[in-house]
């Protein structure tokens, strides 16, 4: 199926700068400039990427080590304390990584998707083979950031590039 929405990846230099907690103005000097038609696109793109990097960092704080999932008919159920207060902020369709460490220190990673959200419980859709083979052993759970909204914001910003230009 064709995908018409561009990816708009976070620039590596900006990601590296933020992760090493260096001055962002060195990598993106447009943030220190007075807002003008010539820098509005680069400035707001940068702000969107910074928001995304912050959201990723916040989600990493909710990684769960040694979680025990409950088997349901179709889903695996995960208790997530704080979910009722929106921490972490999860939506239907979000990807959740499940990791299992094997005896040889090799980690197996399984991808699941949020199917239902209740007060303190998330129902995860997983591969049927994994669902059937899961025996209640502890898993590490890593929530991932869904970039779709940010990609839409970047796309909207792209559409404004030519506003105000005479034809």
Strand arrangement, largest sheet?
A: 1-7-4-5-6-3-2
Which structural category fits the helices and strands?
Answer: alpha+beta
**N-C termini distance:** 35 Å
| Estimated share of beta-strand residues | 15-25%
> Which residue ranges are poorly predicted, with pLDDT under 50 across at least 5 consecutive positions?
none
Oligomer: single chain
Q: What is the ordering of alpha helices and beta strands?
A: HHHEEEEEEHEH
Into which percent range does the helicity of residues fall?
Answer: 25-40%
Number of helices: 5
Q: Globular, elongated, flat, extended or rod-shaped: what is the shape?
A: elongated
How many β-strands, per DSSP?
A: 7
Q: What value does the average pLDDT take?
A: 92
